């Protein structure tokens, strides 16, 4: 509504798009499109782990925006557990370093909104 270009996606979906573009030899096209968004919201980060190639592709893709454009990552894992997702401590440290530079961290503890809504429905 304010004229910003925003992409809302899941980590799995973005990685699938990156892999397809990579295998078709047109990774630059998706990278250019990805860089044009004012804000990218990457949801469900940490629900599925990545293989080595996937980790590297996602790292490179997210690094394109580091320090230049806004990115929101939603996850249920603390940074200390991100190595479980990426499987490589060096790559994980580099990604966390890039994503957390000049960042606003919001730790949302509490009851799930979905669970709360379900309980309200059940109590009616």
TrEMBL record:
Residues forming coiled coils: none
MF terms in GO: ATP binding
InterPro entries per the UniProt record, alphabetical: IstB_ATP-bd (IPR002611), P-loop_NTPase (IPR027417)
Domain IstB-like ATP-binding: 2-119
Pfam families in the cross-refs: IstB_IS21 (PF01695)
SUPFAM superfamilies in alphabetical order: P-loop containing nucleoside triphosphate hydrolases
Cited Gene3D superfamilies: P-loop containing nucleotide triphosphate hydrolases
Highest taxon listed in the record's lineage: Bacteria
Protein name, entry field: IstB-like ATP-binding domain-containing protein
């Amino acid at each position: 509504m304010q004229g910003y270009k925003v992409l809302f996606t899941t980590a799995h979906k973005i990685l699938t798009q990156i892999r397809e573009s990579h295998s078709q030899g047109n990774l630059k096209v998706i990278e250019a499109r990805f860089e044009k968004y004012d804000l990218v919201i990457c949801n469900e980060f940490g629900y599925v782990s990545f293989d080595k190639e996937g980790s590297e592709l996602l790292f490179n893709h997210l690094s394109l925006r580091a320090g230049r454009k806004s990115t929101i990552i939603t996850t249920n894992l603390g940074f200390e557990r991100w190595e479980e997702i990426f499987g490589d401590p060096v790559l994980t440290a580099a990604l966390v370093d890039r994503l957390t530079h000049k960042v606003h961290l919001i730790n949302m503890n509490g009851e799930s909104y979905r669970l709360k809504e379900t309980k309200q429905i059940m109590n009616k």
